[in-house]
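Record type: ASSEMBLY
Status: queued
Input:
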Amino acid sequence: MNLEKVIFGFFVVLALTLNFGFFLGEFDNPEHHNEFELFAVIVVNLIATALKFGDRSQIGAVLFATSLVADLELLAAAGFWTFAVHITGTGLTPEVMSSIMSLAGGALLANVISTVILVSETLFNRL
Amino acid sequence: MAAVVDLSRITFIVMREMRSPLIALLLVYSFSILGMVFIPGIKVEGETQYMSIFHAFYFMTYTATTTGFGEYPLVFSNAQRFWAIICLYASVVTWFYAVGSIVRLLQNPFFVRALSEWKFSRHVQRIQAPFVIICGFGDTGSVLTRGLSDYGMRAVIIDSDEERIKALQLRNYTVAMQGFCGDASVPKHLLEGGLRRTNCKAVIATTNSEEVNLKISALARLLNPKVGIISMSKVEVFEETLATLGGEVHVVDPFKTFAKVLAASMQNPGFYSFNNWLVRDRGASLERYITPPKGKWVICGYGRMGHEVNWVLNKYKIKTVVIDPHEPNKNDYVDKYIVGRTTAITLARAGIEDAAGILSGTNDDGHNLGILLNARYFNTKLFTIVRQNRHENEVAFRETKVDMIMQPTLVAARKILFILIAPLLKSFFRYLLDDKPGRKEEMEMVINRLREKVGDQVPHLVTIDFTRDKSKAVIDELDAGEVILLGDLTKDPRDRQRKLDLVVFVIKSGEMEIVLPPTNYEIQENDQLLFCGTSLAHRLFNATINSEYKLFYVQKGVYKPRSHLAKWVVKKMNKVGV
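Status: finished
Output:
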């Protein structure tokens, strides 16, 4: 058993499931999407990215890239949230909410890809 | 290096052939356009309209090509219509003339040749991977090409028979095999085949003609002193000349190769099966040994094969009876020589009833099969060796269920394939067949291990070069001063408790060759290793020597930390890996 892979796998799957949980619900209804869940997704995702720093294998590089994409989109979603609530004061209108959820949906897809790569790498290694 | 075939030559041919049609077209066009411009058109508001040069050219363009858009930009006057008729007939006829010239040029055999030569040499120039030049795509050439394709090695094929080259293009090889129809003994064609390129590893002469093979070999040596030369030869006089060409020259004589195998299998019971299993002969198995008996032998047909087999049998002091239509040569040691064609009568005279073995070795397949049936009528327990001259008779020979089939083209092709992909195999066999105590037991051990590891699966003979581009991880570790043991590399990178399904035959380190190296052998840079294993074992071995993480695991049993964080933690905890 490779302990490093266990830890990385744990964070990647946690990021995916949290992301999915946040994404669930009516698309543009702010009451269905919790800001703390978004916070948790971002933290877990960033940890997953940090765990891939320094991996020189091919698959490691691809996993690093996909989790970077997820980070970027989630941070953009959080930034947009903050901007709408605190700076412009528009509040969480359906338009604002759907933009945030689009970004979160994109991140979800990136996390799915990470998980698929992770699982297939494990399968190939065990052939 | 510049292209061998000059592109300018083809351009020149096209230009020269197209000169007169082009001039004719130019003249007709300009004459028609000028006419259209100067001929008065209809009157508009009392003023005569003339065509502009642009409009006239436009009109001619669609008229000469028989498109015919009509009268443009205005309705034509009758004078213009009259001129248009002349233009139309003149230009259409000229166009046909021009098109005809192009078609004639394309059909010109010399032009087709020049074009195909140019295309061929352009394709060869683009080959980046190592490749070999095969001259002659007969039975031997095609079996060899198929073998090379299995091992992913590229080949450039030159044959003078157009049909064979066309057949080549229809085959499904794993890598592109470039074919060219031409005489391989013409230096220009060898150069077009990439003889002087640095990634050209060898020139292989397998044409039907001994003279041509010799000429190709000599030309190859002159044009590229470094290239490897492999030439098929069945005549000793030529073999002597070939051996003195200098540099790396291999002469492949199928009869001599067979004689060696026969001699080895007389001495070592497992060798024939082992050798046939390695060359992936159909029906070969490690479970069933084939050993020629040491009683009286009848040799039918005393040609090249008969001589070689007689020589081997003499070595083991076995009595031989020869049946051949030609008069005997006094120098050979033969127990009894019967002059005549092999028939039931001559076979009976040769004492076929109490013979142990028979060689049916004439150069006629029908005759060989006939001899076999005759002999079996007299003696059903005979050990049989038959020579199969033509590949197309394969099915019939398989049906005879003889003990050994000797197909010269196949023997030669396999031998050449081994020289190319497993050069160390020769030293391995030389070691095993050496007449020293313990060698028979060692061969038995190798066969047992192969049986256990590979068994019924297809054996893969693999040569591994420990160089930077072929085994990066190993060289990186060696550079870092680490010691890499052969025993670690042969562990399964998925679970190091298990061993990969392979048997290491030889390691070549510098000038030293270590046969059946021990597991604690330390790998050096530029070592060359030969092993036989399953296809999966080959893939996994390659994965280990190219991935630092897998190499670390098979060596140390723990996983190499991948990320910076994991590296830091491992260092803090004073551990080797996770």
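Annotation: Chain A has a mean pLDDT of 91.
Annotation: The radius of gyration of chain A is 16 Å.
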